[in-house]
């Protein structure tokens, strides 16, 4: 278990309000490849930004649908790791605790986190590309991608693609939590994708203590009061045990 700086522990023990932003890195130790390295094997010749867009889906719906089916297969086998579980338990340690995630893998909810703001949707859900309404899994059978039972449009995963707006309610709640928190934890994110990457900066503008948990430096590192250089699955249990 990793040693947490005393100064950080003091901040956490005094904090009433904490916000956390997670990215693909927290699921790496559950066997879910991070977004930047998800392109292994047959997907090596594509960039995520070239597949996770409306244009890519219009151009080649089967290729994009098959990419998500491949990722769903990986995620179905994945289990929450000690990092997800530590965050689920940290939720009860603070009067005001908000977990904001860029991940679409549902692992925070599987770990027991109750209040999760999913900024980029959830890969386990489908919706219609045309009427944007939900399409349940049973309907999503047959051809790839399946057809919407209401309008015959193509079915797509219910995630936020590049160039698409984030769900407004979740984004507004994430900004509010970032503005009122005393400690903001940034876990497993390269802090490159906006507007999620603006949340830690917003917290900093409102005098929060910014903490990064990541094995490597990111564009956020210079802004962080504390950087815990290591994997989330060992850093977060250490934080939980000493808070
Ligand atoms: C939008 C769902 C309005 C789909 C995803 C302002 C400035 C610059 C660009 C923009 C901007 N505003 C908008 C943009 C454009 C764009 C953007 O940000 N582009 C980037 C590439 C520059 N943003 C958008 O399009 C957003 N929409 O702004 O709407 C709009 C509307 C019209 C026109 C313009 C604007 C929508 C963004 C959402 C895209 N959807 N996911 C899917 O999953 O298929 S984003 C995708 O990237 C994932 O959600 C992923 O989570 C996310 C961010 O990546 P990370 O999570 O950080 O993952 P990454 O692999 O990069 O890094 C992993 C990190 O973990 C690393 O640092 C690694 O060191 C670390 N790590 C590894 N192992 C561990 C670990 N950490 C801890 N423990 C470990 N064991």
Task: Provide a short characterization of the protein structure.
Helix content is 35%, strand content 18%. The protein has helices spanning 6-14, 25-28, 48-51, 54-59, 61-77, 82-90, 107-111, 168-180, 198-205, 232-242; strands at residues 17-22, 96-101, 116-118, 121-128, 134-135, 155-159, 183-187, 209-213, 226-228.
Question: Descriptors for this entry?
Answer:
18% strand; elongated; three-stranded antiparallel sheet; 10 helices; 243 residues; alpha/beta; 9 strands; 35% helix; binds ligand BV8; six-stranded parallel sheet
Main sheet: strands, sense, barrel: 6 strands, parallel
String of helices and strands: HEHHHHHEHEEEEHEHEEH
- Rounded to an integer, what's the Rg over CA atoms? 18 Å
Q: For the terminal residues, how far apart are their CA atoms?
A: 13 Å
Low-confidence runs: none
Main β-sheet, spatial strand arrangement: 3-2-1-7-8-9
Query: If you average the pLDDT, what whole number results?
Result: 94
Residues in helix, % = 25-40%
Category by helix and strand content: alpha/beta
Strand coverage percent: 15-25%
Which outline best applies?
elongated
Number of distinct helices: 10
């Amino acid at each position: 278990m990793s040693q947490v700086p005393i100064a950080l522990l003091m901040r956490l023990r005094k904090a009433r309000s904490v916000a956390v932003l997670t990215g693909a890195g927290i699921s790496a130790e559950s066997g879910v490849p991070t977004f930047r390295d998800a392109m292994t094997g047959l997907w090596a010749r594509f960039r995520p930004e070239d597949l996770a867009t409306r244009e890519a889906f219009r151009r080649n719906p089967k290729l994009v649908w098959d990419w998500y089916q491949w990722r769903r297969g990986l995620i179905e086998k994945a289990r929450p790791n000690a990092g997800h579980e530590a965050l689920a338990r940290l939720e009860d340690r603070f009067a005001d605790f908000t977990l904001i995630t860029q991940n679409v893998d549902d692992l925070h909810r599987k770990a027991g986190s109750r209040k999760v703001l999913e900024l980029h949707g959830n890969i386990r859900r489908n919706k219609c590309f045309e009427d944007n309404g939900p399409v349940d899994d049973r309907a999503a059978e047959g051809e790839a991608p399946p057809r919407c039972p209401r309008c015959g449009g193509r079915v797509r995963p219910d995630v936020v693609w590049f160039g698409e707006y984030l769900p407004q309610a979740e984004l507004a709640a994430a900004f509010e939590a970032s503005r009122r928190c005393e400690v903001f934890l940034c876990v497993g994110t390269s802090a490159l994708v906006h507007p999620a990457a603006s949340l830690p900066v917003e917290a900093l503008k409102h005098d929060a203590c910014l903490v990064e948990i990541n094995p490597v430096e990111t564009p956020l590192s210079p802004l962080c009061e504390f950087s815990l250089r290591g994997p989330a699955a060992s850093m977060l249990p250490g934080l939980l045990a000493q808070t």
